[in-house]
């Protein structure tokens, strides 16, 4: 019991909304609902929900880099693409037997993280910050898209994997669980749902521990005042780089899950629109908190898909309007503002005030 | 061995020679004030010592070690600490968290909470621990940052106009605190305009003028130095200069 309460303490802190038994009971209720959900739905819809889930890792990574670390990066999409293509290349060449798809998942995420470490080294040790960080990361993303787009010719292949230009790479195997009595192929269905849900819970809780640790303290200190943070003896470049790499790895995880989900990835997954959308999800939800980012991302994705399905040509325009409204009305995020509103009557700390909407 | 030494320190910004061959020596255990008219190069010298600027030539020794090419955070880890002129605090975080960020790597986790409580009491901020640092009064912000700076337990404390914007009472209290810290063995280098504060705390004073060391000595010697008075306010006497300087504090009681 003691160990359990210690564990819960590490999950809570000044860097995350939601604390105390009330919040965690709510969390367990939502989790139980999420576990029970496939029982009341059909495989197709559940598979579609997995599609939403795949993006959340990237959004949580961006929340960490931007919301907590204060560095606006458009690079998430680049790492998403790198990991997605890496997964495709690895699994098309080496197949899915003996659980190799999960090995490929780890390798693909590691490749994205390595690329982020290299890029991040030049960015942060070169002291690039603010709007320039956004410009450089966006450029890298777009360059990657352009590069992949011109790989249509048959000479662009790695082993058996054709890169295939704008048509995209396809036919990689889905994630496959080795199982006694026959591998379980995780098509977009109930089984994949539980695997991804499990990953999501682990990543969410892991990130809560991270941002509430002394590392997270330094991270928000850098966001608030980098000079002061350095003058407390912190090598802020290392913290920024570490954050950037963790965020990139999460974007890479999204990329792998997306690619294995649809058995398909194209250069447009690294395009301008793809690079802008995570910014919208995270900003609308509330980038400076993991929970609001998670809820916001699911909400915005669901609205976006509903708009697209119901024939609206304007789904992207609506996303843009949503971003503008958020910036004007609730700069810290719509879900974030809502969460504070709900929490106010229950919280004795409400009178202490919250960070200004700057 | 001196605590801090600059040897032939030069800094040029293009054609501007902002720091001109500055030799400055701080003995361990002294409170040393750096004064001079606006544009004398005090802030630049301060930033050179901190490592925010690298000198064009010359060397900086800290406790005998050449730190000229070290990064700011490396200098901090060797035992320097700084309080900026504009309060450098984490505005959107609570007062307690501000101190926690400063102290988390200097104390055992088991005693960190108690140490923070003790420092809060020392800074007279116990009742404000849960408030956002950005919502504190100006004087409280200055104190909070001083608290963060001293929580690192530095050998050398650098203060850039620590009393800027403080009332005379707050200025005096800050001076008393500096003296108390000094009595515990902390060496202090302060850039300061407020002559009342300088008189209260300084054992040694260095006057900078046009980037050069213009005069050096005890506070009495500096106040008696008519050339120093001349660079501040033309013909007025040193005594009046000090008096004027005391009244020119932005945000002070007379402002």
Question: What can you tell me about this protein's structure?
Answer:
The complex is a heterodimer of chains A (358) and B (255). Chain A is mainly alpha-helical. Chain A has one domain (2-275). Helices cover 67% and strands 3% of the residues of chain A. Chain A is built from 14 helices and 6 strands. In chain A, the strands form 3 sheets. A two-stranded antiparallel ribbon of chain A has the order 1-2. In chain A, strands 3-6 form a two-stranded antiparallel ribbon. A two-stranded antiparallel sheet of chain A has the order 4-5. In chain A, strand 4 (176-177) and strand 5 (184-185) form a beta hairpin. Chain A is globular. The model of chain A is unreliable at 348-358 (pLDDT under 50). Chain B is an alpha/beta fold. Chain B folds into 2 domains: 1-79 and 154-230, P-loop containing nucleotide triphosphate hydrolases (Rossmann fold), CATH 3.40.50.300; 84-153, no CATH class. Chain B has 10 helices and 10 strands. Chain B has helices at residues 42-50, 72-77, 95-103, 109-122, 138-151, 168-183, 195-201, 219-224, 226-233, 238-247; strands spanning 4-13, 16-26, 31-35, 57-62, 65-66, 80-83, 156-160, 187-191, 204-209, 212-217. In chain B, strands 6-7-8-3-9-10 form a 6-stranded mixed sheet, sandwiched between helices. A 4-stranded antiparallel sheet of chain B has the order 2-1-4-5, covered by helices on one side. In chain B, strand 7 (156-160), helix 6 and strand 8 form a beta-alpha-beta unit. The longest helix of chain B is centred in the C-terminal third of the chain and has 16 residues, at 168-183. In chain B, 45% of the residues are buried. Mean pLDDT of chain B is 87; it is low at 235-255. The interface between A and B is medium-sized, with 25 and 30 residues.
